[in-house]
């Protein structure tokens, strides 16, 4: 028997879908006009500040029942399609495909951007600096392992700008062509993944010989070539390289999260809820670091991170990486940065960008291979 009420509801949906499509196309025509203006003025296609403002406004105005995370997921792809109409955005990251950097990049730029994997982190920076990519996505710190030294060094050395950030939950799996743990004699893994799964490995894979790899996806590729081995990687890398997942979530602490930054070459527009990353060095004298930090206290600016790193050009001197609340174009931040810079021996503003919430990281759903959270 035909269910008339179901058919009627579906006719309602068809009419609404047509309306959504018409309106999306109206939106795309405006996007094309903006694209032409940008081309005339030599402006970048990608404007992360504007995109974040678009999403935040919609999340705030959303009456439901559509959850906020779905509003963001839908708009991630609408914005990707919009950018693609203006100029396909080339996004570079540490490859091969399906590293966590790739997942982070997809969570920011959606599926219709053009993704350009690189063999090493330095190549990611070079691709951006040489204009071969428009933006780069690189890891900057992990909740268990701390700062990513190589990224910090390259931020010091290269003229790039931080234009965005995102937090991604890192869920490692033990993946292999073998049917069980018993036959695994070798473990391929990125050193950070090893650090995050130390306890689990010592309990379950004590006898395996460990081989460090430049990325988790490379580890998966190695394990695919050798049935007596396993890799620590994410579920997408396992799928891609034909491995089975022998154990899920093998990291020692739940809530293992990596913060990624988006790099570009130009300054970002303020959104009203931004963060600014800076890099500085101080003189070798009592109170020198305190003098700089005091400026931020006096201006009421919250410092969310400070980390030191050896200065490779000058042994036994240190660089400080810090993040403070606000945008470098906000008057009170601008004043504080000027004053702080006057108390340092080296000072670089790495960039201002929309603030992401570390307590609500992007989650990559193991069962459904989808983003949420
Ligand atoms: C349309 C624009 O270009 C891009 C696409 C956006 C959009 O679709 O809303 C927003 C910012 C840009 O990254 C724009 O700058 O407004």
Automatic annotation (TrEMBL):
Start and end residues of each ACT domain: 277-354
Subcellular location(s) per record: Cytoplasm
Main location group: cytoplasm
Prephenate dehydratase domain: residues covered: 90-265
All copies of domain Chorismate mutase, residue ranges: 1-90
GO biological process: chorismate metabolic process; L-phenylalanine biosynthetic process
Protein's pathway: Amino-acid biosynthesis; L-phenylalanine biosynthesis; phenylpyruvate from prephenate: step 1/1; Metabolic intermediate biosynthesis; prephenate biosynthesis; prephenate from chorismate: step 1/1
The reaction(s) this protein catalyses: prephenate + H(+) = 3-phenylpyruvate + CO2 + H2O; chorismate = prephenate
GO cellular component, one term: cytoplasm
Transmembrane region(s): none
Pfam families xrefs: ACT, CM_2, PDT
SUPFAM superfamilies in UniProt: ACT-like, Chorismate mutase II, Periplasmic binding protein-like II
Enzyme Commission number(s) from the entry: 4.2.1.51, 5.4.99.5
Gene3D superfamilies per UniProt: 3.30.70.260, Chorismate mutase, Periplasmic binding protein-like II
Residues flagged as site, Essential for prephenate dehydratase activity: 258
Keywords: Amino-acid biosynthesis, Aromatic amino acid biosynthesis, Cytoplasm, Isomerase, Lyase, Multifunctional enzyme, Phenylalanine biosynthesis
Matching InterPro entries: ACT-like_dom_sf, ACT_dom, Chor_mutase/pphenate_deHydtase, Chorismate_II_sf, CM_dom_sf, CM_II_prokaryot, G/b/e-P-prot_chorismate_mutase, Preph_deHydtase
Record: residues binding substrate: 10, 27, 38, 47, 51, 82, 86
UniProt GO MF annotations: chorismate mutase activity; prephenate dehydratase activity
PANTHER family: PREPHENATE DEHYDRATASE P PROTEIN, PREPHENATE DEHYDRATASE-RELATED
Function of the molecule: Catalyzes the Claisen rearrangement of chorismate to prephenate and the decarboxylation/dehydration of prephenate to phenylpyruvate.
Name of the protein in its database record: Bifunctional chorismate mutase/prephenate dehydratase
Organism: Desulfacinum infernum DSM 9756
